Amino acid sequence: MWHQLFRAARDEIGVLAYAGLFLAEDMGIMRVLAQRARAGVAVRILLGDPDGACVAERGSDEGVGESMAAKIRNALVHYRALREVAGVDIRLHDTVLYNSVYRADDDLLINPHAYGIAAAHAPVLHLRRTEDGDMASTHLESFERVWACSSSV
């Protein structure tokens, strides 16, 4: 599903997560992100600041402590190759995430976060933006708010 989502993007790909390590470790996904960026698709990746208070709290909430920050640092190592690709922008945020957001144009995969549950064990919802003000638009607005307060890697 992730490959299909990102391959279909024509204008924009967005990732908003704390670590999203499963994406960074998938060489096929990494190739798709690079290919889409080279084809003119804007790729924006937002990961949690491994030194931030929100990541520390999420690690504590999930009972994994410092490993949450370690996952982000690991993902950043994997994303290093993408940082050299024009059209890819990777940033860090220190915000509370209620959902992880994975976007390809108007199609979104939303991973709601549940207290004490690792994101990988929570459900994923598929939404499609059909008009302003719909459920997908709400998640896209949230992405933009986090982007606005993020910092470059």
From TrEMBL:
Record-given protein name: XRE family transcriptional regulator
SUPFAM superfamilies assigned: Phospholipase D/nuclease (SSF56024)
